[in-house]
Specification:
The protein has 20 helices and 14 strands. It is an alpha/beta fold. The chain has 2 domains: about 240 residues, D-Maltodextrin-Binding Protein, domain 2 (3-Layer(aba) Sandwich), CATH 3.40.190; about 110 residues, D-Maltodextrin-Binding Protein, domain 2, CATH 3.40.190.10. The longest helix has 20 residues.
């Protein structure tokens, strides 16, 4: 395996590699190979609270430990993240779980082989409905359906990307409440930072996105949180570190080192409330999420209010590590998104669910990186979950699961 390319970054590769503990190198780069082939990586992110592990890996120097310099790159939309990954303008990205899978399957564009390198977060998303709906007596899914039935019009809901997590949480929640998202509603795509402004302008009745935009919607009296994503699926997969398969094949040591550095940042974030408060202050800065830290920290710590006078301590708040469980790229998590693509007509036929997940979720890269960072790896590549409608997802018969829903595309 060749070493870092000094012709691209003159002197940088040698200097970074010399600073790396040989014991770390031996774990991070398998079979005695000599370090990251690309010592500087550009990782895209969308201004959301769950970009924290990528930002803090750079800010706290975990990247340097593994011979890397991570340069976070703020992006404006998930479509832009996708396009820059494919052109090579970004080496990797904080990405919606479904983004690499959508590209892999050629949904909405030309198929390209993609890689999910690790999970970055679980939980911590939400569905917010407008204050106008609250004024009409809407408090939950049942009352929303009643209003939509009694006062029909074009009810508009927004998500952030067609194959993304937010689209799937929104569709699942609406359908679980008897609202067909494809026939009873108008669904649009809006970048996360524009959600609150669009709701204030009356362009939508509700949206599903990440934080801190739900907390912002409440602060600006634009809407109320009707459901958290963790109430739809406790400990659901959310953001991942995504890349093209071509990048991983060309720079395998770099990919392993990148994952190891972000694993250390993830562990740091989950270690204490103080570490999360530190991260909130950092990512609140204009170059990152660009909001006040207090808007971020509440829900980051699991302190919730819904905008209707209710407050609670959430038992499944945003998680970055969970002793590695939040970071392990379970094959069943990727398979679940494929079942939903089939359910909603984004896939016309059943794929080989397990084979696709094995191709995309790079367990080999993750396991090497976890060994370097001292992070335990779950024994099973699959996990089960019970969602809000009482259905259990266990990945044993994904085709039957995908076909079992009464409301579908």
């Amino acid at each position: 395996m060749s070493g870092p390319d000094d012709s691209v970054f003159p002197g940088a590769a040698s200097a970074l590699l010399a600073a790396v503990d040989p014991r770390v190198r031996a774990g991070a780069w398998a079979r005695g190979s000599d370090g990251p082939e690309k010592p500087e990586v550009r990782i895209g992110f969308i201004p959301l609270t769950d970009c924290a592990s990528v930002i803090m890996a750079s800010a706290l120097g975990f990247d340097r430990k593994y011979g890397l310099t991570i340069t976070p790159s703020r992006e404006t939309s998930w479509a832009g993240v996708r396009d820059k990954l494919l052109t090579g303008e970004l080496d990797a990205a904080h990405a919606l779980y479904g983004l690499p899978y959508g590209v892999q399957m050629g949904i909405g564009g030309t198929a390209r082989d993609m890689a999910v390198l690790m999970g970055l977060s679980r939980n911590g998303q939400a569905i917010t409905l407008s204050s106008r709906l609250a004024g009409r007596g809407v408090r939950d899914g049942a009352s929303l359906r009643a209003l939509m039935t009694q006062a029909p019009r074009d009810y508009t809901f927004a998500h952030t990307f067609p194959t993304g997590t937010h689209a799937m949480w929104l569709y699942y929640w609406l359908a679980a409440n008897g609202i067909d998202p494809l026939r009873m509603a108008r669904v649009i795509t809006v970048p996360p930072p524009r959600m609150v402004g669009a709701m204030l302008a009356g362009e939508m009745d509700g949206f599903c996105a990440g934080e801190p935009w739900h907390a912002r919607a409440i602060a600006e009296r634009a809407g109320f949180t009707v459901q958290t994503s963790q109430a739809i699926w406790p400990d659901h997969p959310e953001k991942v570190l995504g890349a093209t398969a071509e990048f991983v094949a060309r720079y395998p040591n770099t990919a392993r080192a990148m994952v190891a550095a972000i694993l250390e940042a993830s562990r740091h974030l989950d270690a204490s409330a103080e570490h999360r408060q530190e991260a909130a202050r950092t990512i609140a800065e204009p170059g990152y999420v660009d909001t006040d830290a207090e808007t971020i920290i509440g829900r980051m710590l699991g302190h919730y209010k819904d905008g209707l006078g209710n407050r609670w301590e959430d038992t499944h708040p945003m998680a970055f590590h969970q002793d590695g469980a939040a970071n392990f790229p379970y094959l069943s998590d990727g398979m679940w998104f494929l079942t939903q693509y089939k359910r909603w007509g984004l896939l016309k036929t059943h794929p080989d669910y397990l084979a696709v997940a094995r191709q995309v979720n790079r367990l080999d890269v993750y396991r090497d990186a976890a060994a370097a960072a001292g992070v335990p790896v779950p024994a099973d590549e699959l996990r089960t979950a019970t969602l809000m409608d009482g259905r259990t997802w266990d990945a044993r018969d994904p085709a039957a699961y995908a076909d079992s829903f009464a409301i579908h595309g």
